[in-house]
Amino acid sequence: MAENVDVIVVGAGLAGLVAATELAAAGRRVTVLDQEGEQSLGGQAFWSFGGLFLIDSPEQRRLGIKDNYDLAHQDWIGTAGFDRDEDLWPRRWAESYLAFAAGEKRSWLRAMGHRIFPVVGWAERGGYDAMGHGNSVPRFHVTWGTGPGIVEPFERRAHEAEKSGLLTFKFRHRVDALTMTGGTVDGVSGAVLEADPVARGRSSSRKAVGEFALRAQAVIVASGGIGGNHELVRQNWPARLGKAPAHMISGVPEHVDGRMIGITEAAGARLINRDRMWHYVEGIRNWSPIWPRHGIRILPGPSPMWFDATGKRLPSPLFPGSDTLGQLEYILSTGHDYSWFILTQSIIKKEFALSGSEQNPDLTGKSWLMTARRATNKGAPAPVEAFKKHGADFIVRNDLADLVSAMNALAGNELLEFDAIKAQIEARDREIGNAYAKDTQIINIHNARRYIGDRLIRTASPHRILDPAHGPLIAVKLNILTRKTLGGFETDLDSRVFGQDGKIMLGLYAAGEAAGFGGGGMHGYRALEGTFLGGCLFSGRNAGRAAAKAVL
């Protein structure tokens, strides 16, 4: 028997929670469905580093960073590269989101108890011309509490709405179909999965023990992307990036399977920009995995030397932290799906961080003492040292010849030539003491150290890689790590979904990654980082508020 509510939200991740709590705040009755258990509330946001893109924030101003909407707009448009007829709504979403990031985003979150770590990060620095890809200034604001800290305000609001009777969670409910009456989406149906107490992130049972049907005046699809489904990633892989990698690791759990995207498209929704995606190239295999093929992304500073699988240094400006998709395209053009960092203990101590809430216990646990130790410890942060010790992709040696030999052994080939690697490192080292260096990476290092945030906690003092005083030498084999779907369901600014006939599908909304974070792809081809969680917040809020107004 079908139950009736005002709005159904499919997906209990960040976008779904935001939409549901906005609906409840407007007095609407909402049911949130998720195929996972309650332990997975918050979805991928829980596992994130908690980075948020803000423009002209108090944190930026305190650090002497001068930012404004026009500069951010220039950076976004140069990065997105909108060039398709389908980019009409994505571009409108991008401009609306920029206004949100420059306006009420921070104060809206702060009123709910959200706080920000005071040092602003500088992601995706580009290195092309002023109208090209990249952030002109640091804009990556880390949530104090990382991913759990961004989920907590909405989880709390949701449980308050649950107590008041306005919000109902139905976990282990897998949606198999959208229902329609007279051309209007008015419900969902699917299977009830058996209870499974498996820990957050681990693969859960798919055994069905019942069926369900729900009716509502509107349905919001906030089911996430496809990053856990490598078959779908390869199926949608863009030819412009080269052949899809033979080997990838996963930055998201297996349940990020894209299944609901296929179901919604089959119901008539228009999916655009499906070939736009965001995968990292600094992935390392987790030595203590939670989900299948579990990978972690290194958040590197500017100093590691980066070599492709054949031992050639990546060309300018493809240095650490510069251009994720540019690096991906170059690496795949070599005919291989991995690359290498070579660095020193002094670099790893100061510059390496690992993406993810579980890899940053100091920030996640809101411990100022532990955070301060990042700058004072003799070694790298404990999670980084653990990877250095246990990680399958890390090699530590005192001698360069031994290091290169071990790199070849790990790769299972003899592609790296010691003399060629040595010559490139020695050439770089000759430039390091030159204030007028022509090596673009060294110029970037000096530029980074002009920013107080980088100088304090993210950029090592310039030194020679082969200086034993800064050893031992470290090599890291970098894998391609699946992560985000940049395309999605085409929506207007109220998150209403367009049908394949170009008309709005009555009763259907989409938010978060399923909507390309807004409009079907507000990032275009590339992202400036800190914009995925923000896209979930903004599109979830728009969807919830618009649906609340639409229902009777």
- Helix fraction? 25-40%
Q: Overall mean pLDDT score?
A: 96
Distance between the termini: 22 Å
> Might you state the CATH topology name of the largest domain?
FAD/NAD(P)-binding domain
Number of individual domains: 2
**Class inferred from helices and paired strands:** alpha+beta
The radius of gyration over CA amounts to 23 Å
Structural summary, described in words:
This protein has 552 residues and is α+β, with helices and mostly antiparallel strands. It folds into two domains: 7-223 and 487-550, 3-Layer(bba) Sandwich (FAD/NAD(P)-binding domain); 280-481, no CATH class. It is 33% helix and 21% strand. The strands form four sheets. Strands 1, 2, 5, 6, 7, 8, 19 and 20 form an eight-stranded mixed beta sheet that branches. Strands 9, 11, 12, 13, 14, 15, 16 and 17 form an eight-stranded mixed beta sheet that branches. Strands 3-4 form a two-stranded antiparallel ribbon. Strand 1, helix 1 (14-25) and strand 2 (30-34) form a beta-alpha-beta unit. Helix 1 (14-25) runs parallel beside helix 6 (146-164). The longest helix is centred in the N-terminal third of the chain and has 19 residues, at 146-164. The protein starts with a strand and ends with a helix. The model has no long low-confidence stretch (mean pLDDT 96). Its cofactor is FAD. It comes from Bradyrhizobium erythrophlei. Keywords: Flavoprotein, Oxidoreductase. This is FAD-dependent oxidoreductase 2 FAD-binding domain-containing protein.
